[in-house]
Each structure stands twice: as C-alpha cells, then as structure tokens.
Specification:
This protein is α/β, with parallel strands linked by helices and 531 residues long. The chain is 20% helix and 20% strand. The chain is globular and about 70 Å long.
Length: 531
C-alpha cells in the first residue's frame, strides 16, 4: 500500500492513511465504513490480508453540539449527504443518511433486534409476498450471537413473544425502564399486550460510559457509549495493524478487466483529483442506494464511461441492480396526557410486537417501539408549522413511539443514476393497509393507557435510514445480484456487505442483521471459507 499514516488527532484513531501518489494497493478494499463495512473489517482483522476501508466522510467531531437538540435537529449540523432526486415528484430531497466513519450508526437509536425467524421465508402480506432468503435463520443465528457481543447488546431472552430461538442469553441484561415507561408497560399489559425491553446497544456494562441521557436517539454520543460501528468494530480493526482507513474519499466507479469477470480497481475522488484503489477483492458497503448507484455507474469491461445515464451497470446481468428498493412504512406517534408531565430521560426501552406476525386477512402489521424522548426541536421536524411553545408543552407531557411495517420488494421501486450522475429514487409505498391498521391499533392502545390526545405523522421518501434491497441475494443469477454468500453473480472478486442484498425488509431495525451477515460472509471474502 503506497500511503503514509495520517497524523493522529483528537477523535482520529491510528490506522488512518494519506496516499503518497495516485495509486493505493491492498488485498481487500472495503468501500463504506458503516455497520456492514466496519464489521467486516473487524472480522478480517486477523487474516493477515491488507485491508483498506474507504469512507467518503470523515470522523464525526466530538463537541458540545453532539448533545444540542437545536444544533442536531433545527440546524441539521451533522446532516452532510448530497440531495437525492425524487423521481415521483420531480424534486430533490435531503435523505436520512450520514456520511461519517461509522455511517448512520453514529446517530442511530441503538436498537439492535434480530429479524424474526419467519422473516427469512416467503411471508404473505396484504399487498404481496416478501421474498424468501437464500438461507434460513439458523444459518445466521451464531453470527447474531457474535454481533450482540461485539455491539454490547442488552436484552431479555424470550420477553418478546415473536423472538426467534437463540443459542444463548443476551450478553448483558436489558436496560431497565424508567418509572414513566414502566407505568406505560403495565398499562399495556392490562390490555392483554406483551410489552418487552428493546434490545439496546449501549455501554451499561460494569464501569461502562453510558449515562442514560436524553441525547441518544438521533444524536451523536459525546462519551462514546453508543454501540456504533466506528467505536465497536472499526477502531479495534484499525488497532490490529493490517487494517487502514482512507477518509474523504468517494468511490465513483469500479473498473474491470476486458473479460468483465474481475474488478481491478475502484476510481475514487480524493481531494481535487482521482485516486485508483487496486485490490484482489472488493466489498461494497455504501448503503443500499449508494451501492446500487456505484454499480450502475460502472460497466463490465469498460475503463471509461460511455453515457451520462446508466441503464446497465456492473453485476447487472439480471437487470435487478437498483430494483426492489425498500424502506419501512413508518409513522411517528406522539401521545399526550395534558394532566401529567412525563419526566422520562432515556425513553427508548419499550417495544410491542403483538401484531408483528400474521393477523388474519390483514396479514402481519409490524413493530411498535419507543422513541428517544421528543422535545420541541426534534418534534419541530414532524410538525414544522406548529408553534414552538405548543410543541414544548406537548412534548413535556408526551410518550413517543415509532411504528414500522414491512415494505415489499417491487421492481418499480428502484434507484437509478440520472443526468450528471445524480442519485434518483423511484419509490411509492407498498403494503400501506396493514400499516394503517397498525397505526389505528397503536392509537387505541395509547388512549386506553391514559393518553387522550394522540397525534401521528407518517414518514415519506426522506426517512430512509432502513433502506435495503437494491442488490438482492438469490441463488438464481437470473433473479438476483449476489448469491447466498453475498458474492456478485458473474464476478469473481466482488461482494456486498450492507443491506443492499436483503431480499425483504422485515419490520424491525436492520443494523444487527447487517452486522451478523458481515461476520457470516467474512471467511468467503478472505478466501478461507470451507467449500
């Protein structure tokens, strides 16, 4: 590798490099440092291979604004993604993604559930069938267990009635409810429901740094207590000595040899010029939208672009690259009792999955989970026209929930690359009737729990941190982009490690499944898998 170590600075771990010339050589290039890329680098750290992680962003700074709601939500201090184009409305929007070392996990809510066992098979919904996965839950279970240890997941075994089987307990006990959340849980049990403690990735171990503060969900963590991919996976990988990190470097295109069977290099925008990253093996972990866009900007056997608009792309013999884009159908719910304040601090500990699986003719409905406590600055993004004093008064007396239902894969929902290389998203919600029923039941649930005023707001195209499906895994090369090991069909040395490969979206947070799968595919990427 032709590079020099980057001088250490506050918040910058050892292992960062600065190129000395126009070419960087390594054995394995991992493009993207979010949950998939960072976990894969961690899994490969003991192989002896020279691993280079390429990240378009930089380290998110540790500063007092990390915990400032006006800075995070009102000013959007850490939102740094370029606008994407909504092909349905013809307008640009600001996507819910963050370009930093660690990706979106730097600001996620740290809820780390496993997918349900039923999520791995074909599952019939009101408006279609979610595709089955090319391997069962049992193939991922041991890697789920490893990922839970790596990401410090706290939970209670079998508390959730839909929990899949486990080979062992959670590594650490569940984060206990604060009194207002415990009271809500009791009110839900009185309705015959089964609330449970959300599996949560924070450092509440003995001597841990978590303060159980009010600035976790949606905020960067100033004390490093949130189990993000940067702190839990990438930094230990960098400390191993064979893993390096290149920041502020955006992969623009992959270049193959003349036969189109192997990726030879990635062309990377770095500074004011172009850098060539050469490797024996490449792994894409840019997020479902950007991974698809990178593939669509690339061509088998081509060394120069032939058109400003990509219609074919790399690993796309099936024509499925960019298609079947999914995000959860999601709604914010704010339940207010004007008679009593809610003095909770760390609210995001409660989940309800009683309606997750099949429910007669309506099919599966989805997941209900507590949000980090909303305050006026964060609620202002949901109801921008509401007077700020009114939002402040309401959120001092509210319990706040997030409702998610499964989005279904349809070819028309897709990512394309348009004029000038812009990212274009074609998306219409699918499977909305079950989501509306989930919202109706959650509203009734909260009113029965003593909250007479309930407000809801369904999220649209910009709330896409749970994106997946644009390079789906399928053993049949005619119907998918990668195989069960997440290696691209028709290419000898390209893998995908983010959520692009998901055949279906399930209805719970995807981060732990991304991490577990990165651990699962690591031997194949390293060339040490048993045939």
């Amino acid at each position: 590798m032709t590079a020099t170590p980057h001088p250490d600075a506050a918040g910058r771990p050892p292992g960062s490099v600065r190129p000395d010339g126009p070419v960087l050589d390594c054995d394995i290039a991992v493009i993207g440092s979010g949950m998939g890329g960072a976990t894969l680098a961690y899994a490969l750290r003991g192989t002896g291979a020279r691993i280079l992680v390429v990240e378009r962003g930089d380290h998110l700074p540790r500063e007092w604004q990390n915990w400032s709601a006006p800075a995070v939500f009102t000013a959007g201090r850490y939102r740094n993604a370029e606008p994407w184009y909504d092909a349905g409305t013809g307008r640009f929007f600001s996507p819910g993604v963050h370009y930093y070392v660690g990706g979106n996990t730097k600001v996620f809510g740290a809820t780390l559930p496993r997918f349900r066992e039923a999520d791995f098979g074909p599952l019939e919904h009101a408006e279609g069938v979610s595709r089955g996965w090319p391997f069962p839950y049992g193939a991922l279970e041991p890697h789920y267990a490893r990922a839970e240890r790596l990401y410090r997941v706290h939970g209670t075994r079998a508390a959730d009635p839909t929990d899949p089987w486990r080979s062992g307990d959670y590594p650490w006990p569940a984060v206990p409810h604060e009194p207002p959340v415990a009271a809500l849980a009791e009110a839900l049990r009185a309705q015959g429901l089964t609330p449970y403690a959300l599996p949560t990735g924070v450092d509440l171990r003995h001597g841990g740094t978590c303060l159980r503060c009010a600035t976790c969900d949606g905020f960067p963590c100033l004390v490093g207590a949130k189990s993000d991919a940067d702190l839990c996976a990438l930094r230990p990988a960098l400390a191993a000595g064979n893993v390096s990190l290149l920041t502020r470097a955006t992969a623009a295109r992959l270049v193959t040899g003349a036969a189109g069977r192997r990726v030879n290099e990635a062309l990377v925008r770095y500074g004011s010029g172009e850098l060539r990253v050469r490797a024996d093996r490449f792994v894409l972990a840019c997020g479902a939208v950007n991974t698809a866009a990178l593939l669509l900007r690339s061509e088998p056997g081509a060394s120069v672009p032939t058109s400003p608009v990509r219609t074919t792309g790399l690993a796309n013999r099936s024509g499925q690259v960019g298609r079947n884009y999914m995000v959860h159908n999601s709604t914010f719910l704010v339940a207010v009792d004007p008679r009593r304040p809610n003095d909770v601090v760390f609210q995001k500990t409660l989940g309800v999955n009683d309606w997750y699986l099949a429910d007669g003719a309506r099919g599966p409905l989805g997941n209900v989970q507590a949000l980090g406590k909303l305050r006026a600055p964060s609620a202002g993004g949901l109801w921008p026209r509401a007077p700020r004093p009114l939002l402040a008064a309401a959120t001092r007396r509210s319990a706040d929930l997030y409702l998610t239902s499964e989005d279904l894969p349809v070819p028309e929902n897709r990512v394309t690359v348009g004029s000038g290389g812009r990212v274009e998203v074609h998306w219409r919600p699918v499977n909305l009737p079950p989501h509306r029923e989930l919202v109706r039941r959650a509203v009734r649930m909260m009113r029965r729990a003593g909250y007479p005023l309930v407000f809801t707001r369904r999220m649209g195209i910009a709330v896409n941190s749970h994106q997946c499906g644009t390079a789906a895994a399928c053993d049949d090369p005619a119907d998918g982009v990668v195989d069960a090991g997440c290696k691209a069909h028709g290419l000898d040395n390209l893998w995908i490690a983010d959520s692009s490969w998901f055949p279906s979206s399930a209805a719970v947070n995807p981060a732990l499944t991304i991490a577990a799968n990165a651990l699962r595919i690591a031997p194949g990427v390293a060339g040490t898998a048993v045939p």
